[in-house]
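W.,

You were right to be curious about this one. When I first looked at the sequence I had no strong expectations either way, so I just let the prediction run and decided to look at it fresh. Below is the sequence, 206 residues in total, followed by the output.
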Amino acid sequence: MQQQYSLEFASHTLLVAGVDEVGRGPLAGPVVTAAVILDPMRPIAGLDDSKKLSEKKREFLAECIKQNALAWAIGRAEVEEIDRLNILQATMLAMQRAVMALEPAAELALIDGNRCPALPCRAEAIVQGDGKVAVISAASILAKVTRDREMIEMDSLYPGYGLAGHKGYPSKAHLEALARLGPSEIHRRSFAPIKKLLDENFVIPK
């Protein structure tokens, strides 16, 4: 059903991009977004909400998307931007960056959620769109694979927090590591658990 929905759009003259984000909830790392324009002549089977797929399936589909999509792009907002703008505005900025990087440019953007960033093309927000619309599913997969890979890399640069496992989300293990080590420079200072630690005079390591 979800693929029929998106391919109906794509079968017209509009270039339709799906847009989704990963990383609004973590205490560490960037928020990452993806924008994807699928090729209706090269459909990709198995697209779904990235959270419903195994890591192996996501990795496989991410490569299929990169090889078969008409266009795809990654956008991001860094920790400093998240702390300065707030997570919602940083997410909107990252979505703008992803859509603006598409070549060819999108004529319609389907955004997962209930808000749309300011874009040069028409945009429509679709609640739970990552499970309903194939182009948004594709974007959710690319965004998650991209961010997960980065957090695995960050684990070696900032050992002790378990970033490769929880990807920066506020798991019990992550909170225990924060209490023991204090926050690192990739932790979001504006988020309540980190702010509390800083208020307790933890120094962010250089």
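Here's what jumped out at me. Strands lie at 16-22, 31-37, 71-77, 108-112, 122-126. And, maybe more interesting for your project: Residues 1-11 have pLDDT under 50 and may be disordered.

Coffee later to discuss?

I.
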